[in-house]
Amino acid sequence: MSIPVRGLLDRARVDWLYRRVLQRLQTGPGAAHPGRREAESRLWAARQLLRQPGQQLRARDEAVRAGLRPVTRRVRCAVDGRALREYMRTAGPAADVVPMHKDGTPYGATRREMVRALLLRLRVDERDVDGMAHVCLSYRHSLLGALLVAAGHVVESREYACDRGSDPFTLPRTLRVVALGRTGVGMDDVAAFPNAKAACVTPCQRQIRLFLTHRELIMTRMGDYAFEGAGLTHAERRRRIKGLFNSLDMDGTLGAWRGRVGLTDGQRPLADFEVDLGDGCSFRFAVYRGVMRHGTAWLASRLPAMRELVVAHLRGEGDVARLAHPERTLASYVFQEAEGLSRRAKLQWAVRGGHTVANLQHDGIVVSLEGSVAPAQAAAQLTQVCTRALAYRQCVQHEA
């Protein structure tokens, strides 16, 4: 049960929350867990405490003093200082242009400025040789992620570096490769959000699994059609179509995506696009879009207490844009939980194998492999451990 940062819960509200959580314990996936009785006992004790305004106020103030966003993890991240300095020395005019994120928003600094800022943060000690350096990264959840974890709605959330300027992962991909090229191997989940959505959002399961089974064929056909004559490589077309499906996973719109990739109204319409998959089966884009929209509302309707916390947080932050569709924020944090469970499984695997984790990257990690373990072998092992942690198949790939 969660206490609001602003104000207190009245007794009726505490009792309502107690009943909701008790119902989740007794009817959810953990109903048969041997620790359920203990959890029910702790829940009862929390209810009794929070029904007393003075005790509730004390618990809230202690939580605020301890920090609403505690550090979740600390990592020593090796960085190729020599490669970054060489980039500064040889980079051309493109380094002085502000790059854009995938969603079309600017990074806020040029590539050269970002590299310079990272170089100023690098440290060197006796473990750094051959031009390598390091940064010490502390990670934490977003404020809403931390609140959801503390309230028990999720057990994991995305972790962000406290000092984002020190984290090579926040750089554009080309610069990230320069900074981490000799650090280790990137291990990432394949289609993490779609897999999570297919596992927990019933209305979307059939369409997502159809898409994932024929993913490359569908994206190739759609990319070839949408960008015919645009002079783009196969990889560039695929990246743009992948961006479309990533956007739809989080209730983005086809129109907004078209604007981001430069398709004008009426040019190469995709709304009714179909892909023949053979054997009388086809992928209908209109059906896929429809179930994505329905699935988000379906998920929120089954998590009313979590939705209420999300709404209260967005209202308190004055986030009018996201408050218009709180179900989208809720869905994002549900899928981030799966992402976090997969990331945790990778970290535990690394500890058991004596491998050194250098960076956290949403569902992935950058890891320095010990002994004779090859990247492909590591990816196969991680596929097994992440699948076991998530209770559905989750493939892991290593970055080439």
Main sheet overview: 4 strands, antiparallel
Rg, Cα atoms, Å? 23 Å
- The end-to-end span amounts to 44 Å
- Report the β-strand fraction as a percent range: 5-15%
Overview features:
400 residues, alpha+beta, three-stranded antiparallel sheet, 17 helices, 9 strands, 54% helix, 13% strand
Structure description:
This protein starts with 10 loop residues before the first helix and ends with a strand. With 400 residues, the protein is α+β, with helices and mostly antiparallel strands. It is 54% helix and 13% strand. The protein has 17 helices and 9 strands. The mean pLDDT is 93. Helix 1 packs antiparallel against helix 2, helix 8 (192-200) runs antiparallel to helix 9 (205-213) and helix 13 crosses helix 16 (326-353). Strands 7-8-4-9 form a 4-stranded antiparallel sheet, with helices on one face. Strands 1-2-3 form a 3-stranded antiparallel sheet.
Task: Summarize the structure in short.
With 400 residues, the protein is an alpha+beta fold.
How do the helices and strands line up, and which of them pair or pack?
Layout: H1 11-27, H2 36-50, H3 53-66, E1 71-80, H4 81-90, H5 111-121, E2 132-141, H6 143-151, E3 159-161, H7 173-180, E4 185-189, H8 192-200, H9 205-213, H10 215-226, H11 234-249, H12 254-261, E5 274-278, E6 281-284, H13 285-301, H14 304-317, H15 320-323, H16 326-353, E7 356-361, E8 364-368, H17 375-390, E9 396-398
Antiparallel strand pairs: 1-2, 2-3, 4-8, 4-9, 5-6, 7-8
